[in-house]
Design a protein that fits this description.
By secondary structure, this protein is mostly helical. It is 68% helix and 3% strand. Strands 1-2 form a two-stranded parallel sheet.
Length: 287
Amino acid sequence: LDFHLGIGKNGVAWVQELRQSRFIKPSTGIIFITSDRLPQTIGQIIDVHPDLLIIKPYSIGTLTRQLEHYMTYRGFVSNVLASLDKGDTKHALSQLARLAQENVPRRLQSDVTKLQARLLYEDRQFLRAQQLYEAVLTQSDQVLWAQWGRIKCQYAAGNYGACSEQLSALLNVNLAKDQAFEWLACLCYEQEAYSQAEHYLDNIKPSDLSVPATRLKTLTYHKQNRVLEGIELLQKKRAMNRSAKEAFNDFTFTLAEFYLQLAEESPETNRQESLSQARKLVGIAGR
């Protein structure tokens, strides 16, 4: 995939949707090729864990070497990937453990470790997955996929203090800072520190706010009784994406949800205006 696909969703959004909808197998290889070197773009791509990321311009030699390496890796873990496609994560993990005992070729060690950590996380073995990520970071603390993997394990295990500390360290990394601000805002919101959550989200440009980040920011406004600011933000995001149908619809539905939430919290005699606005928005996006 390319990252920029014209009007509509970008390559990262499509990968996320295809995976969530199970239109592609868990073993499907994802290769991004892009000329966009902006940290925000590269950070988004890295966050969906592609198997390869190739930056333009590239030579045929570079492309060939990377594809050959990837196909060698797929051949080495082919049985593991087959089990993964069958939904048998535990069997896939046992197969990986056997492969590790047979001495993984040095040039494939990073790929195999990444797969093993991902499967342990999916199997809810958060501590073991975290230990693998930390082993990678011991060798090099600049490996971004391992940094995010460790943070996700800490978050899933409820270790919010360590999670917050690691996220704060990523605020100085251009490739990860927007995502780190979003995660820190989530942690603050869960702890009912709504103004602090808003402060973290203020560090992300309004045009760069994802749908989940925008929704979170409107919730922080709502919790602080600043409903009009929440509505205004969603209206702005709709206007920014008027020519991008999917994004426009996503923000339209999010605004409809916001109005429904207002209706839900209002006395029964004072719900009509919010319900009417939500109905109109759903009709617009539905068309």
